[in-house]
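Tutorial handout. Part one gives the primary structure; part two gives the three-dimensional structure as tokens.
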Amino acid sequence: MEATREQLEQWDREHIWHPFTPMQTYAAERPLIVQRAEGCMLQDLDGKWYIDGVSSLWCNVHGHRVPELDEAIRSQLDQVAHSTLLGVSNVPAIKLARKLVELAPSGLDHVFFSDSGATAVEVALKMAFQFWRQCPVPRPKKTKYLALSRAYHGDTLGDVSLGGVEHFHALFAPLLFQTIRAPSPYCYRCPLGLERRTCQVDCARALEDLVRTHREELAAVVVEPLVQGAAGMIVAPEGFLRRVREVTAANEVLLIADEVAVGIGRTGTLFACEQEGVVPDFLCVAKGLTGGYLPLAATLTTGEVYRAFLGRPEENRTFFHGHTYTGNPLGAAVALATLERMEHCGVLAGVAERAALLRRHLDRIAELPCVGDVRQKGLMAGIELVADRGTKQPFPAAARTGHAVCKLARAHGALLRPLGDVVVVMPPLAIDLSLLDRLGEIVHDSFREVCSPR
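Part two.
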């Protein structure tokens, strides 16, 4: 017997603990329950359609129910759904590793699979730590990490230690290891109190100074290339990433590039690092890797790092880390189909055209009285709400102004999600231009209603 709508709503309230969701407020409202999807649209139990304006949490690339991706999973089901990668291998995982190495910046020749962006970064942290104990000239004092203020790299304890979003991370401080913190390139609210038009990217200089000062104890610097996502879509000034790579290389500090959100075409190139000619020591990818279909992540690294883990079993140089679903064949198969579609269907070429159309809508939104700043890189955008444009005074947290914009957008037929009072707009890369135009109108109208209440 099929569950009724009322039963589903009741069971949802009674049993599902939703992530990053104030559950008391959620339980008091009627939930939106998705039942199916088509292209870049999601449908609820009432049959109402919504534009997927945040790519189902930043991971959907080609849309929903894409025939080639669906077929990749069905075909793999006829072979094997899962087989461990611990001491055994499988065909899709091998092919995917090869494809990633071919597409990634040159020199990243080894792939360690996991199941989420958080685990991909956690893998890199542990590898970096162990590397400095096993490299040809061991440096056991290298135990610390440097991350940016407002950083977000996931919710495992290692990633939370890197995190700089007080709202998310402060509570867990007693459980965490110490992180060296560099200022975020948040030009709208510069942590150094400077103005972008006159500064010399002083935040990069501050990071460089910290790397030089702490070089003997730094295992790695961890950054999101080009855009800090959960920090509020903070777009770094041009050249910032390049300077991070140069100072880490010059001071024997590893560089971990967290491309979980910015990778797989989101900023206009397959990997964001490409735009500044950067080859990190670790490249972490997830989210869009499978087109948003299944959980799968990868941490790519260099031959130098890999060789430090080689030795006889009794030497204990092995990387003792893994996940049950590491290299899952279904996930690997759909990831291969995703990358092939990226290569052969002009997806990357289409990002620039869509980004330009989105920019036109963002420019109109930027003129509204409660909009302080609009930030965009490719098909990633964040719109920051303020109570006063002149002083940049934020709205009171209790007002939940970003949430109010997203609630209006939902009523108009688009699903968005705020980061506090920064509203994220991040549609699938394959979104039709007319649908993107409609999304832009909805976002504009929703902001206008909040900025000019009746």
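Part three, for discussion. The mean pLDDT is 96. Residues 16 and 23 are 9 Å apart (CA to CA).
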